[in-house]
Amino acid sequence: MIETFERQLDSFDAGQRRQALSALWRLVDQGQITLPVPGADVNLHAHTFFSYNAYGYSPSKFAWFARKRGLAAAGIVDFDVLDGLEEFWEAGKLIGLKRCVSLETRVFVPEFSTRVINSPGEPGVAYHMGAGFPREARHPLLAQMRRTAESRNRELVRRVNEFLKPVGLDYDRDVLPLTPNGNATERHICEAYSRMADAAFWKEKLGDCPGDPARLQALIRSKMMKKGGPGYVPPGRDSFPVMADMNQFVLESGAIPTLTWLDGTSEGEKCIEELFAVARSTGAAALNLIPDRNYTPGVKDEKLKNLYDVAALAERHGFPVVAGTEMNAPGNKFVDDFSTAELKPLVPVFLKGAHIVYAHSVLQRAGGLGYLSAWAKENFASVKAKNDFFEKLGRELEPAAEDRLRSLPSKVTPAEIFSNIK
Questions:
Q1: Span 336-355, pLDDT tens digits
Q2: 198 is a domain residue
Q3: Interatomic CA distance for residues 226 and 293, integer angstroms
Q4: DSSP letter, residue 287
Q5: Which domain holds residue 187?
Q6: 157: which residues sit within 8 A by CB, 6+ positions away?
Q7: Is the preceding omega at residue 291 within 30 degrees of 0, hence cis?
Q8: What is the arithmetic mean of pLDDT over 149-175?
Q9: What pTM was estimated for this model as a whole?
């Protein structure tokens, strides 16, 4: 019965997902499911099926498994859309999960136009985020991002189809049904292509055909869609929003503009102080990183050193660290292994960032009193004081008490906020 409800959490029917989560929570109330006390693990960077999750997870499914695994906090992040925001927020509230919702896209950074940052082979292009959106935004830039992504996808399919003749995809028939709200990504396209031909065909076209579907999809992506492949079109200056425009949209939406980090080995990321300065000048105030990409267990290498260096740099700038593992490729973990010798020293940094973004999300949603709000500017004389407040609030606030922070007066003091959740 539990497995049936858990499978139903991935239905494309939102009503079925709500029913399944409610049924699971009733089983918790009846004592048939025991949930652990939340620990210290976090994953604030899980993609859902509203962009691409390799396991088909909906926002409700990720929320449920995060609570079932005892995560201290959890967050979803989708490409170019906030379609899962309300579902994830309400699911987390029901089951007692501290949470946040973010958005990821690619941006153009004019100051780095000749240097690769974190989008391999694409100078000036960077993955970038807004963290802690309080509500689903309605904004011209968000609508434009969605239109541009769809246009780019359709052109990619047209070019790959030309190369693969006589086999080809119909974007509307074969790709769009793989995602519930029409926001297909490159990975959906790879999945659709992997299903449409036999091993002999792919061996002829790719030079290899791995028996593992995940490896086949990765090979299709690298050979067909990335630099050098028939579907690849080098991005131009207008292919993605400028970082400053993206940050302005994030700020207007009540979220935190967030710089993203790959591993510190590119020309652009080697100039990390300069990159931080550029990002800060247009509003960035947090850093996202994917711990699992930055170390090999038992190995002390350049990437691990870079991970520690960038975490220390974030601390010096007062940037909360938004950490997690993506789940947007088969084989990705559900949560990073924070018990490893390499990651264990960084657990306090990751937990602090999670508590800050959770507290921001609640206060911004409740009354516009979030991390970058006018209220925060008036009440905290330093970034450290602000971080201390939001970290403490995120640590002490329980989801069941969130409603106590609704409709707070604009002149409420930090002390009064704490008195409301006791």
A1: 999 999 999 999 999 999 99
A2: yes
A3: 20
A4: E
A5: 143-225
A6: 168, 169, 171, 175, 189, 231
A7: no
A8: 94
A9: 0.95
